[in-house]
Design brief:
It contains seven helices and five strands, in the order H-E-H-E-H-H-H-E-E-E-H-H. The protein is α/β, with parallel strands linked by helices. The chain has one domain: Alpha-Beta Complex (Maf protein), CATH 3.90.950. A five-stranded mixed sheet has the order 2-1-3-4-5. A hairpin with a 3-residue loop joins strand 4 and strand 5. Helix 1 packs parallel to helix 6. It is elongated. The C terminus is likely disordered.
Length: about 220
């Protein structure tokens, strides 16, 4: 296997292991090459449970819940099918992330106007799904290796972007919480100020007898003697 492909696989696995995530894959044109690349890494049983190789339309429908209407109207090589393959594999396996590959490794397919070397890679997690495509140039075997290379790189890029979005979301949430705390503190301070003002006003009024005056008090006192 290509050394760069192995290096990319190792990079992806390190990300999985950092958060104890699991992965699954669904392949068409690569025939299991992506799964083989990932499971070449020692300890694969800790983060890799199963995968699918679905070449035919029927297998994509029956195994991965790809919509037959899309296959029959658009073919198997498009973003919608790539996403549905990835989502189907993830749902069936229970993995945290799934990668799918659907493309034309070569030679040119009969009754198809799609070029050899075209590939779509789907990435799905519990919270998002995406598909990327690229046009390769090479022999059938070269294209299969290139497709796996592209799939691994796409998965790493999606993972890293999702991590950035997660950090941004956490930072925004912390900002909102801090802002809410400041507003609450201001509200509490204002409430305390009003209570203090009311208490002061009440104490001032409590020293006054609205029915008497200082002079009246003095007269009463002398009369008592």
């Amino acid at each position: 296997m290509d050394e760069e492909v192995q290096a990319l696989a190792a990079r992806l696995v390190r990300r999985l292991k950092e958060v104890k995530a699991t992965i699954t894959v669904a392949e068409s044109c690569t025939g299991g090459l992506l799964a083989s690349t990932l499971t070449d890494i020692s300890g694969a049983s800790g983060w890799f449970g199963q995968s699918w190789v679905c070449y035919s339309y029927d297998s994509k429908v029956n195994e991965l819940n790809v919509e037959r209407d899309i296959l029959e109207s658009k073919g198997a090589v498009n973003a919608a099918v790539a996403i549905q393959m990835a989502e189907g594999a993830r749902n069936r396996s229970g993995a945290d992330i799934a990668i799918s590959i659907t493309g034309i490794a070569g030679p040119i397919a009969l009754n198809s106007n799609k070029p050899v070397g075209l590939v779509y890679v789907g990435i799905a997690s519990a919270h998002w799904a995406n598909a990327e495509s690229v046009q390769m140039g090479g022999s059938r075997q070269e294209n299969k290796i290139s497709f796996v290379h592209f799939a691994l790189k796409t998965a790493i890029d999606c993972w890293d972007r999702a991590k950035v979005r997660q950090k941004d979301a956490i930072a925004e949430k912390e900002k909102e919480v801090a802002s809410a705390a400041v507003e609450m503190a201001k509200s509490e301070a204002e409430r305390s100020r009003r209570v203090a003002e009311n208490d002061a006003s009440w104490q001032e009024e409590s020293w006054k007898d609205p029915g008497t005056s200082v002079g009246d008090d003095a007269d009463v006192a002398w009369d008592g003697k």
